[in-house]
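DNA-directed RNA polymerase sigma-70 factor
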Amino acid sequence: MHDLGDLSDQKLLKAFQQGSVAAFEEIHRRYFGRLYAHAFKMLGNAADAQDVVQDVFITLWTKGTAIQLHTGLAGYLYTAVRNRVLNLIEQDKTYRHHLSALARFLDETPVQGSNAADEELLFSLFEAEIDKLPRKMKEVFELRRQGDLSYSEIADQLSLSDHTVKKQIGNAIKLLRDRLVQWKSQLVVIFF
């Protein structure tokens, strides 16, 4: 048999799809550095770039036998990295948008006569509402809020999909915002 390093991408992929772990390792060796540099250039964050590339290789490993390429292996891998990077950027934008919307909402209608005690009351009400969230939703929300973890890191840690994590965080923020609407109207009545 030929040295795997001499095989074309197409032959390597075929060997991997036929069960050769060595062929997968050669694909990984051949492309990891280039894909990492590509992801890092787009993200500017080493840890995120490494996570993205690892996710691509995990997907290749788990779904490799079912992959039917219409382009070359390199094109498939680069496209997969690009798509994961774009998803990561979109998730981060969505999360930051939700948080800024919540912050704007809290700042929009200050309660008259507001002081540090009022702010402390509002903060404790907010924390109490977080505690009332469904268990898994609270866990996801707290990991994102306090650990500054990405959606994919939370998904890995809790064995969930990225989509589920995104949905749970969005739902948590919506619930908290709806409850804050109720508090603000009640606090305005109390202070008048």
